[in-house]
Known about the structure:
Elements: E1 5-9, H1 13-25, E2 29-33, H2 36-46, E3 50-54, H3 62-73, E4 77-81, H4 86-95, E5 99-102, H5 107-121, H6 126-132, H7 144-156, H8 160-174, H9 178-192
Parallel strand pairs: 1-2, 1-3, 3-4, 4-5
Helix pairs in contact: 1-5, 2-3, 5-7, 7-8, 7-9, 8-9
Organism: Pelomonas parva
Domain Response regulatory: 5-118
Protein name: Response regulator
Amino acid sequence: xxxxxxxxxxxxxxxxxxxxxxxxxxxxxxxxxxxxxxxxxxxxxxxxxxxxxxxxxxxxxxxxxxxxxxxxxxxxxxxxxxxxxxxxxxxxxxxxxxxxxxxxxxxxxxxxxxxxxxxxxxxxxxxxxxxxxxxxxxxxxxxxxxxxxxxxxxxxxxxxxxxxxxxxxxxxxxxxxxxxxxxxxxxxxxxxxxxxxx
Length: 198
């Protein structure tokens, strides 16, 4: 069973193929496009649950596609870009992306971020959702609990609810609060993903 339908858009065919393959292997149904026009047509036809968008492309940019997805399809989206300048980050926040990932990225970093985005877009208890979506936070800083659930789902091939209960058990066993335990897991993943780590 598919974990969810995701639209992947990047004008670099190698990046697109790598992302599509990695996300398919992780259990997602992937629709891919190498330009903004095709991305919008495919989104209208297939109604993905999440879009992963490169920002700088010929013709329609990732920002153009995101604005369309938000306005007409209410599809959540995350950006993947080699650029992290202030103007780009400001536009990302203005559009309301669920995450902003800076290239170069390994598929092992992208899959947990995608799973966390799916976890966040799923219906959640209202107080937790309100706490997770503080507008002052940079979108890169995904809710650590959702991020940790995504990591556990990927690492142990668990459904979302089982990954969450495993996280709760770990927190209880270690005597930490749920957000604190989640932050520890996310920190550990980020440490392992640093360049030069083997």
